[in-house]
Structures are given as structure tokens and as C-alpha cells.
Amino acid sequence: MFKNKTSIYSNIISKSFTNKTNTNLTTMTEINKSKNLNIKKFMPALNTRWSPRAFSDKPVNEEDLKILFEAARWAPSCFNEQPWSFIVGSRSSSPKAYDLIFDSLVVPNQLWAKTAPVLIVSLSKSNFAMTGQPNVHADYDVGQAVGFFILQADHLGLYSHQMGGFSPEIVIKNFNIPKDFKPISVMALGYIGELDRLPKDYASKEGLPRARKEQKSFVFGEKWGESRI
Amino acid sequence: MFKNKTSIYSNIISKSFTNKTNTNLTTMTEINKSKNLNIKKFMPALNTRWSPRAFSDKPVNEEDLKILFEAARWAPSCFNEQPWSFIVGSRSSSPKAYDLIFDSLVVPNQLWAKTAPVLIVSLSKSNFAMTGQPNVHADYDVGQAVGFFILQADHLGLYSHQMGGFSPEIVIKNFNIPKDFKPISVMALGYIGELDRLPKDYASKEGLPRARKEQKSFVFGEKWGESRI
After folding, report:
1. Chain B neighbors of A184, CB-CB under 8 A
2. How far apart are the C-alpha atoms of B90 and B69, rounded to whole Å?
3. Does some domain include residue B202?
């Protein structure tokens, strides 16, 4: 499935390879070469998933949306509480919800997110349904469900880009959210689009190499802060 | 890769199919039949991932551990903060860390988790590295990284089972964790094992049908609490 993903930015990305340094590697392929890991053992999405800003007009069909939420649904959670909820705004099938979500985004995100055909709010339920006691794992569990969602999105040839830059207060007001629920992030979802859909400042940054910390800085063994590998 | 996953419990699971009800469906296959979704569109892990309690003695090799943390590493995060850290206890390669993590588990978890060859603590960094300001997305982002980790585990034929039942205080003390970091969960990781490795009470529950809420209870559109689908 991942082979069908559009490579509109392949030129940009290829070009970035030629400038790569040890601290700014670009894709899993490169990473794996440097670490002598067997690339065949990686799930395909690790190589293809990234968070674009330019989305195409093509709508996300309803079956695919159901499949994405099915993926989220089957994530594990503490006491199987499933503390996640989602609000879906789709330009083609739930345009009013789309506008109400869009309204909550900070302006710098509105400038590019307007290209996306779907916007989705992720929310966590702060207290356990059974006991009413605080669920300290709620946000973590919602994150896992969204992790499942975005990897399934990749599997369908879709792209997602999550934003922290939105107003939870506006979401709460626009959708009359009960007190027990907390909006955590807004995701733009769709197919990848041409760079000319973006303002210039954004277009020039699109497809830049992805950067991450090295494993030795976050995977420890017996001694905190010391690499085990 | 997923086709190689052992089906020790296939009898139990097949049997459970014969008792299935609308509210207690067992696998993605069943779910999809009931919803007329195209099963070919699902990522394989959705059908094969679950959280066992009986693990085999077989160690997890170091290359696979590196691949799993590579999957976590490439998760997205707010401002690319990557607020995740992990402590790895492996019976075969970091046994002291294993014992220090095991020590933090509540007794009911120790009874089964002792069968797992690897225990891993997930931690979130509460404040942004750059500004020192609180990162409200930290736990959510760690959850996404762990979501990537456990789907990659499935891709390698490995199983994981996360636990909230442990003492963060004991982890903090045993590993001298800095104040800025919060232990969120402990994961048991390994290959699936025979039921006779578990105490009877646990063995009888292993492989029971997985249950989740229906999408209509957590996927909303314009009106909170009303299904969009």
C-alpha cells in the first residue's frame, strides 16, 4: 500500500540527501544504513509517514474514515478505559464541524491547514467512567490511539499533521464539550497536495529533512542518562 | 511478518467466536464483517496485536530492540520535542535494570510479568527542553511513540503488554530519575508463551475476546455525543 504514496517532494528530499550530515539524517533508509539495522524488519510506515502542510482537495472517503477510527479503537488502554473521543470535520461530509474546528486553530496553522479536507480533534476523558477517579493515563492512552490512527492513515496512502496550536477553549465552546473531556490536539488529514497551495514561507520549508534525537539520548538501562546500546 | 505470529491460543479464540455476541466481538475480522469494511485496507497489526500475560523464555535480540526504539523515535511530537525516554530491563542483556523495574510492579502484575524477558518503563519529560515551560502534550506524545513501538513489535512477531499497576515512586528511587521526568507505564515485551507458565487464575482468562466501545460512542461530528456515522 505504501508504494502508492505520492512522491511530489522527491526532488526536494533527494536534494536534501546530498546535504545530509550525521545530525540531520532524512529517512529511515538513511538511518538504517548508518546503524546496520535490517531495513526489511521495519514496518513500511516508518519510511513513508511524515507531516505535510500542503494537502490536495481530494476528499477522504467515509469508509477510510471508519477504518482509521477502527484502528484507533483497537489500541490498548489502562483498564481498557478507552479514554479517547474524536470530533471529525470533513469539508465534504460534515462541513459545519470543519468550520467549528478550523475556528479554533491559531492563524499560522489556519494558513496551511485550510488546504486539508478533514480536521479532527482528539480529546481525553479525565476521569474513569466506572469510579469517577482521575485517570492519569488518559492523555497517554489517547496518544496511543492516535498513533494507531496515523499509521493506519499511512497504510491507506493518507497523510496527517497534528497541531498543538489551537484553542481548547474555543473547541469546548463551539462543541459544548462536557467538563470531563479535554481537547488535546487537532489533526489535519488528507492526500498530499502541490506546494503552490501553500503561502511562500511554508512552501519553502515543506519536505525538509526530518530530525530526531539519537537513541542513546533517550534509551537507558541500569543507569539513567547512560546509553545501554 | 505477521503471518509468523504464533497461534498458541487459536483454540481458545476459535471457541470464543462461537460464543460471540454483538457487544463482545473478538477480532478485526469479525468487526469488519459486521461493518462491511474492506479488510484488505487494514494494517495487519490490527488483526494480530493483543496483550498477553504468558511470555516465553526466548530473549528479544538487541537488533530488534533497536528497531523498536527506532519506531518510537520517528513518532511525531509537539514542536518535535520528543518528550519520551525509556528504561530497558532485559533478562539477557541488562538483568539488573530488569530487577529494578520488576521491583516497582504491583504483586498481581509480578505474578505474570515474571514470564516476560524484557520490561520497559516509558517516561515523559514534563517541561520543554528549550523554554522550561510545561509541555501539556508530553504524555500524549509519549503515548504516540509507544503506539509506534508496539505496532513495530507486532511486525517483528513480538507481543507487548503495558501496565499501569506499578509504583512510579519506586522507579524514581531505583533509577534516580530527575524531577522533570515522569514514569507513565511499564511494558512487558517478548514472544508468546504457553499457558502453563501462568498461575491458574490468569491462565483461565488468557486469550479471552477483546472488547471495545462502538465507534458511535466516541466519534462525533457537529454535535458532541451524537454519532456522525
Report:
1. 137, 140
2. 14
3. yes
Is residue B187 a part of any domain in this protein? Answer: yes
Q: What is the CATH number of the domain that holds A153?
A: 3.40.109.10
The H-or-E segment that residue A73 falls in is helix A62-73
Q: What is the pLDDT of residues B99-129, one digit of tens each?
A: 999 999 999 999 999 999 999 999 999 999 9
Kindly list the residues from chain A whose CB atom is less than 8 angstroms away from the CB atom of residue B32: 70
- Is residue A65 within 8 Å of residue A190, measured between CB atoms? no
Residue B24 structural domain = 8-42
ipTM over 0.85: yes
Residue among B35, B87, B93 whose CB faces A66 most closely: B35
**Interval B64-76: pLDDT, tens:** 999 999 999 999 9
Dihedrals φ, ψ of A185, to 5°?
A: -150, 165
Q: Which of A63, A74, A159 to mutate to test the interface with B (most CBs of B within 10 A)?
A: A74
Is residue B15 domain-shared with residue B115, that is, in the same domain?
no
Report how far residue B50's alpha carbon sits from residue A107's, in angstroms, rounded to the nearest whole number.
41
Question: For residue B142, which residues of chain A lie inside 8 Å, CB to CB?
Answer: 140, 143
pLDDT band of B38, cuts 50, 70, 90: confident
Nearest to residue A10, comparing CAs of A192, A199, A196, A197?
A192
